[in-house]
Design a protein that fits this description.
Number of domains: 1
Order of helices and strands: HHHHHHHHHHHHHHHHH
Number of strands: 0
Distance between the termini: 65 Å
Largest sheet: none
CATH class: Mainly Alpha
CATH topology: Na+/H+ antiporter like fold
Structural class: mainly alpha
Strand content: under 5%
Number of helices: 17
Helix content: over 70%
Shape: globular
Length: 405
């Protein structure tokens, strides 16, 4: 165990020495740490025992903190001005991607029940900005595009979770009673209504306390950072206590907090670039160590085909359709459709429902989700930096052409 941890930490040191150069290449941190986890698992340096429970904790904490901090860095004024794109992708693109995903799955898995196919499509619907960091952090990409992708990835996992839980309940036979169907409708509504309310409340109160303490010189930057992390966790837990969605609450709390204290809390911008990266790296390491070897061995051609169709067809088509009628260009719609990588949310949600729906179906969901994560990490990682730079050049040319006309 000690030797395995030593190897991991030394690899982290080695990667950090070249991380700046790697961030602008086709080699991304998720790719590196997924691969490192697989290598360690296959070398017997450290076994996969107990890594699943550790992955649950690390992935959940990572999602909460990074959702909060990513949102806190978003420009709410710009979002109010340019909210159409992300709202279309969330309210039309997300349900449409699930619907198209089910249609695509039917001929590939003719023997599986429809609720399981719907669950598979929903598991692959959430996106993860961490895998496309080279896109959302690339200043050459127009701000509106970067903000739209950040908001979409921040909210779509929280919006997908009630749908995922509903389909999981259908698999367990909960659709039999009409009263229980209504209970799940109420549950879904409470998740997407109470979650944002909890986020706004905690974000507003936290921001007011922060500004007051700073104005009275009661705190210092070191303690402010700890308070921000605690506030992120508090928003998540408060939402759970009142029946809302914790992930949506964390994102909305960050959006509220960051735009009220804008310019006053350097930690918001510094943590994501340093300690926040370690959380993401650890989560992908545990996926590679504890889940990927077994999932890869169980990968079949229908599952691989479905994942690739989800990446190359399902989401791009759903996003393209959702943005018809807006001021997006065809290029922008294709850009948004491709840069929707599957990451921590996909793996975490699969783990959440796997135990509840039985071993056979649960294992199928794990195999699908984990293989989708490594495929997405590879494909989106390779294309993120060059794709963002290419799109930025094309966007500038389009803008100049429009101005000339």
């Amino acid at each position: 165990m000690e030797f395995g941890l030593l190897v991991i930490l030394m690899c982290v040191v080695a990667y950090c020495m070249v991380a700046h150069r790697a961030s602008s290449s086709i080699i991304t941190a998720p790719m590196v740490f997924l691969g490192l986890g697989v290598l360690i698992a296959n070398s017997s340096i450290m076994g996969p025992e107990n890594t699943e429970s550790m992955l649950d904790l690390v992935a959940e904490v990572s999602l909460i903190i990074l959702l909060f901090l990513d949102a806190a860095q978003s420009d709410l004024k710009a979002l109010r001005r340019d909210h159409i794109w992300p709202m279309r992708m969330l309210l039309i693109g997300l349900p449409l991607s699930i619907l198209i995903g089910v249609i695509v799955a039917i001929p590939l898995f003719p023997d599986l029940p429809l609720p399981l196919l719907a669950l598979m499509a929903a598991i692959l619907a959430p996106t993860d900005a961490a895998l496309g960091q080279a896109v959302v952090s690339n200043k050459n990409v127009p701000e509106r595009e970067r903000l739209s992708l950040t908001v979409e990835s921040g909210l779509n996992d929280g919006m997908a979770l009630p749908i995922i839980l509903l389909f999981a309940s259908l698999i367990m036979g909960m659709e039999a009673a009409e009263g229980e169907q209504m209970n799940w409708v109420i549950f879904g509504l409470s998740q997407v209504v109470l979650g944002p309310l909890a986020g706004v409340a905690l974000g507003w109160v936290g921001a007011r306390l922060f500004l007051y303490a700073e104005s009275k010189q009661l705190t210092a930057p070191t303690y402010e950072g700890i308070a921000v992390l605690a506030l992120a966790g508090s928003s998540y837990l408060f939402a759970l206590l009142i029946g809302g969605n914790g992930f949506i609450a964390a994102f909305v709390a960050g959006l509220t907090f960051g735009n009220l204290v804008v310019g006053h809390c350097k930690f918001i911008y510094e943590f994501t670039e340093s300690e926040g990266q370690m959380l993401v790296w650890a989560a992908f390491l545990f996926i590679g160590l504890g889940l990927l070897p077994e999932a890869f061995n169980a990968l079949s051609w229908p599952v691989a085909s479905y994942i690739l169709l989800s990446l190359f067809l399902v989401r791009p088509l759903a996003i393209y359709i959702s943005l018809i009628g807006t001021d997006t260009s065809k290029l922008t719609r294709l850009f948004f459709g491709w840069f929707g990588p599957r990451g921590l949310a996909t793996a975490l949600f699969a783990l959440l429902v796997a135990e509840e729906i039985g071993h056979e179906f649960g294992q199928a969901i794990i195999v699908l989700a984990v293989n989708a994560v490594w495929m997405s990490a590879l494909l989106h990682g390779i294309t993120a930096s060059p794709g963002a730079n290419w799109y930025a050049k094309k966007a500038v040319k389009q803008a100049l052409s429009s101005n000339l006309q």
